[in-house]
Amino acid sequence: MSKVFKVNVNNQYDFDLNSDDISKLDTLKISENEYHIIQDHHSIKAEILGSNFLEKTYKVNINNTVFNININNELDSLIKTMGFETGKLKQVNAIKAPMPGLIIDVLVKENQEVKENDPILILEAMKMENIITSPINGIIKTISVKKGAAVDKNEQLIEFDTKS
Fold it and tell me: In this structure, are residues 146 and 103 in contact, taking their beta carbons and an 8 Å threshold?
């Protein structure tokens, strides 16, 4: 099964590439950041000018034109859909259920200070216990669920105090 990558160029053009497409490229690494690519009998010179691995962004010079490229895989898309994106400027004010399930335990109290990645609650779904962690450093404002409650996908579970 081929992996699919979502590619955005210059915040303007979106492409779906799969791993089979990428493996068929005729590329030759010339130096640490330079590549020679042949596609459809056309010669392409590509140079990686900059990259941010965590943000999955790249600045690439292709035949003397600079492009800003963002590449995401299926997991990145799922994480974004669930509202658990990584990054320095997270604007998270609530945690919603990523799937339907049963609340096994609530590990925090209202007004409690939590750190990023602290366990918040345990959600059982499809006979598996999933530990839901805090996406940010913050203070728990409200808890909308109790131990033993059944929840639907996207139901709000926890709200953070967004005043800082």
Answer: yes
CATH 1.20.1630.10 fits 84-160, yes or no: no
Q: Is 159 helix (H, G, I), strand (E, B) or coil?
A: strand
Question: What does the pLDDT read at residue 26?
Answer: 87
Q: How far apart are CA 158 and CA 138, in angstroms?
A: 12
Rounded CA-CA distance 8/14 in Å is 5
Q: Give the per-residue pLDDT at 81.
A: 65
Q: Both ends of the chain: CA-CA distance in Å?
A: 46
Q: Nearest CA to 109 among 81, 132, 87, 142? A: 142
CATH 2.40.50.100 segments of the chain: 84-160
| Residue 80, pLDDT score | 67
Phi, psi of 7 (to 5 degrees): -115, 130
Q: Which residues lie below 8 Å from residue 88, measured CB to CB, with a gap of 6+?
A: none
Distance CA 35, CA 27 (A): 7
Which pLDDT score, from 0 to 100, does residue 88 have?
A: 45
Residues of the chain below pLDDT 50? 87-88
